[in-house]
Amino acid sequence: SLAVSRGLASAQTLRIHPSRAEAGEDPRCTVMLKNIPSSWTEDHVRELLESKLAGAFDFILIPVLPVQDQAAGFAFVNFLTPAAVAACHRLCDGATCFGQSEDGASMPLQVCYAKLQGVTDLIKVWGRPG
């Protein structure tokens, strides 16, 4: 169906290709980290990333869902360069040390480009961090 094909096209558009980012073929610098524990804060994400990517990002936002009053299970990170995006993808995508689902299975972290790019657009839609 058209909706399914649009969804696939969108997923492909948001997929990170580290070699393209490193070569400067994709200028996007804002990513979404999916499957983070709902108990995590921006500080948890900062601590995770600073171990290998200190100085490579300037903004972290974990949206809070107003209905549930808890973190949404994903975070936005704005990196300073596309090469830093590639490094984040290599470091984090598929990692399973970030928590478990309700049935106890590991939830692998997923890293993809965010639909919104840049700090200004993220704040317009989601508000300021914490």
3D structure, described in words:
With 130 residues, this protein is an alpha+beta fold. Helix content is 38%, strand content 18%. The protein has 5 helices and 6 strands; from the N terminus they run ααβαββββαβα. Strands 2-5-1-6 form a 4-stranded antiparallel sheet, sandwiched between helices.
Work out the strand percent: 15-25%
Please, what is the average pLDDT? Answer: 79
Distance between the termini: 40 Å
Enumerate the spans where pLDDT stays under 50 for 5 or more consecutive residues.
1-9, 100-104
* Number of E-type strands: 6
**Major sheet: size, sense and barrel closure?**
4 strands, antiparallel
What's the shape? globular
Number of helices: 5
Query: What is the topology, as strand order, of the major beta sheet?
Result: 2-5-1-6
Instruction: Encode the helix/strand succession as letters.
Output: HHEHEEEEHEH
Query: How would you classify the helix and strand content by structural class?
Result: alpha+beta
In angstroms, what is the radius of gyration? Answer: 15 Å
Share of residues in helices: 25-40%
